[in-house]
Specification:
Number of helices: 8
Strand content: under 5%
Number of domains: 1
Mean pLDDT: 96
Helix content: over 70%
Order of helices and strands: HHHHHHHH
Low-confidence stretches: none
Radius of gyration: 16 Å
Structural class: mainly alpha
Largest sheet: none
């Protein structure tokens, strides 16, 4: 099997895993992060737990897409440093996060949960409101959101693989 085929297989698996996690367990941020963690071996238990309250547009507020934030967490694990004094590493990691945001925006037109929901479901549903949450489910929220989650996991995985290859070639 060629390198490109195995890369495509890996990206397919990551996308499918993230979709499955979102359909079965919910929490877009953790579902993207967990799929990336499973297949790219990133992070640990505490980092997965930390991704959890970022779902549904950050704590169910409909702000920045939780799936995108789950991807950003993975990008941070790959690109950032633990030394707070390293401003070059900070700026580099921020730039990589910006690049990932542009890729997600190219795919979805935005990184905003409310806008993505409206584009996919015809309106925004506040998942913090039990009645709106029921309406979200009835409107196909767990059909559409898993597609978004899977696609963002794939975009992020591709981004990370490209970044790691670039770093390997620069060494």
């Amino acid at each position: 099997m060629s390198k490109e085929t195995s890369r495509e297989d890996l990206l397919d698996k990551i996308e499918e895993t993230a979709q499955y996690y979102e359909k079965e367990f919910h929490g877009c941020s953790r579902c993207v992060f967990k799929a990336l963690q499973d297949h790219l071996h990133l992070g640990d238990g505490p980092s997965l737990k930390a991704s959890t309250p970022l779902a549904a547009g950050v704590a169910m507020r409909g702000e920045t897409c939780g799936a995108f934030i789950g991807g950003l967490l993975a990008v941070g694990i790959v690109t950032a440093h633990e030394d707070l004094k390293d401003s070059d590493a900070l700026n580099s990691s921020l730039a990589e996060g910006f690049r990932l945001a542009r890729k997600v925006e190219k795919e979805f037109g935005t990184t905003n949960c409310t806008k993505i929901q409206t584009d996919r479901l015809g309106r925004f549903y506040s998942l913090a409101d039990p009645e709106q949450y029921k309406a979200f489910i009835q409107a196909g929220g767990y059909v559409e959101c898993p597609k978004v989650v899977g696609k963002i996991a794939r975009i992020t995985a591709e981004f990370i693989l490209d970044y790691l290859e670039k770093m390997r070639l620069n060494v």
